[in-house]
C-alpha cells in the first residue's frame, strides 16, 4: 500500500514536470520548423533554423530591439532595488507608529490594478512630452510596493546588533546601509533582482501604450505584433521567443539557489 | 536626567533619519500610484471624446447598465477568476506538500521543472499556446492518438473551449510561482508536529487538512489575494492567445475588463472618462473580494 502511494507521488510529479517543461521543448523544436509544420503539430526538429533566423533579421532590427529591452530592464531593476531596499530598511529599522500606518497605506495600494492607473498615467506622460520614450516606460515601475514589502519582510532577519556596532564605530546611518546591510542581504537582492528584471523584460501592456515608433519597441511588443499577422510565421516567431526567453532562463539558473533563499525570507 | 534627555534626542534623530530612507519610495508611489488612482476617479465622472471633457455625473455608470460588451467582459473575467484561482492554488498546494517530503528523490528537478514556466513572458507563452492549441495542432494530435477525443477540439475558436484554453494557459504559467510560496511556508513548520500526528494515527489527508492548511493560512490568503488581483487584470494572455475572442465564432468570448479598458482608450475613439469608470469597477471588485478573503482567511491572531 505504501509503495503504491509512493509511486503515485512520482507519477504525479513527473506528469506535472512534463507539462511544465513541454512548451519549452515545443518552442525549441518549433524554431527549427516551418510555420505549416508547426501548425500541423510536428514534433521532430526540422532544418529551418537558419532560414527562420534570417527571416527574423529581415523582418525586425533585432539587435536594436534587444538593446531597448535590456536597457529598460537593467535601469529599472537597479533603480527599483535601490529604492525598494532603502524603503524596506527604513520601515523596519526605524519603526514608529506613524511609519507603520504609512506602510499599511502603501500595502493597500498594492491592490490597485494597473488598469485603473494606465489612463491617468498615459495622460500624465503625454502632458510631460514623454510619450514614446523609455523614461516613461521605466518611471512607473521603479516604485513597486510589493518589492518594498519583500525587502521589509527580509529585513526582519537582519541582525540589528550590526547596526549598534556600526553606530559605536561612528558610521553614518547611510553608511551602515550601504556598507553593512547591502552586502549581508545578497540573497534578498538577488531574488528581488530576478523578479524585477523578469517583470520589466516581459512587460507588455504599459510599453504597448507608451511606445509607438518601431525603433523604440521592446522584444515583447515585436513578438506580439509578429503573431498578430493573418498568417503568423510561427517558425520565425519561435526563434524570437527562444531569444526573448534565454536571458530570463539563464538568470534563473545562475541565481536559482539565491532566489529560493530570498523567497523563503519573504514569508518568515 | 541629562542622559535620558540625550537618549530622547538620539531617538528623535533616528526617527527623522528613517523618513529619509522611505522618502523616494513615498514620492514615487504618490506620483505614479496614488495620484493616478484619484485622477481616475475624477475622470470617471467626465465624458468626452479626444480632448474635450465635461462633467457627466453618474452618466458613465448609467451607461454600464446598457453596455452589453461591458457585461460580457465582466462575465468572462468572473468566469476566469472563479475557475482559475481555486484550481491553481489547490494544485500548487498539493505539489508543494508532495515536494516537502524529506525522503523524496529528484526533489530539485521537480521543483525547477514546475517553477520554470514563471520565467516566460506572458506574451511569449500565450503565443506558444496559440500554436499548440490550433485545430490541427499538437494538443489535438496527442489527444486523438491517446483516444481521449474522437474529433479535434476547436480550442481557440469555440467560445467555451477558448475560455478553457485561457484557464489552462494561466494555470500553466502561475502554479509553480504559488508553489514556491507554499514550499517556503511549509519549511517553517516544525516536522515534529507531523511526526506527532502520524504517531497519533492521522492519515496523510488528515495531516494535510489539520496541520498544513491551517498553518499556511496566512500564505494561502496572500496568494489568493495576489492571484485575484492578477486574474482580474488579465490582458496579455487573452490579447495574444485569442485576440480577446475576436477569432472565435461568438465575438468577445474571452474579452476581459482590462482589454475592454484598453480598447475604449486606445483602439476605438478614445473615451478616457468611460474607460476610467470601467477601471473603477475592477478596483471595486478587488476591494470586495479582498475583504471577503480577509474575513474568511485571516484570524486576527494569525495576522503578522
TrEMBL record, chain A:
SUPFAM superfamilies per record: MetI-like
Pfam family, one: BPD_transp_1
Residues that span the membrane, as ranges: 7-29, 72-91, 103-122, 134-151, 177-198, 234-255
Presence of the UniProt keyword Cell wall biogenesis/degradation in the record: no
Main location: membrane
Span of domain ABC transmembrane type-1: 66-255
Record's GO cellular component terms: plasma membrane
Domain of life: Bacteria
Keywords carried by this UniProt record: Cell membrane, Membrane, Transmembrane, Transmembrane helix, Transport
Subcellular compartments: Cell membrane
Topology in the lipid bilayer: Multi-pass membrane protein
Transcription regulation among keywords: no
GO biological process, alphabetically ordered: transmembrane transport
Family membership: Belongs to the binding-protein-dependent transport system permease family.
Protein's name in the database: Carbohydrate ABC transporter permease
TrEMBL record, chain B:
Transport found in the keyword field: yes
Stretches assigned to the ABC transmembrane type-1 domain: 74-293
Transmembrane residue ranges: 16-38, 78-100, 112-133, 215-235, 272-294
InterPro entries tied to this protein: ABC_transporter_permease, MetI-like, MetI-like_sf
UniProt entry tagged with the keyword Transmembrane helix: yes
CDD domains, sorted: TM_PBP2 (cd06261)
Locations listed in the record: Cell membrane
Keywords, sorted A to Z: Cell membrane, Membrane, Transmembrane, Transmembrane helix, Transport
Source organism, top-level taxon: Bacteria
Membrane topology, as annotated: Multi-pass membrane protein
GO biological process: transmembrane transport
Pfam families assigned: BPD_transp_1
Family: Belongs to the binding-protein-dependent transport system permease family.
PANTHER family: ABC TRANSPORTER PERMEASE PROTEIN, INNER MEMBRANE ABC TRANSPORTER PERMEASE PROTEIN YCJO
Record protein name field: Sugar ABC transporter permease
Biological source species: Vallitalea pronyensis
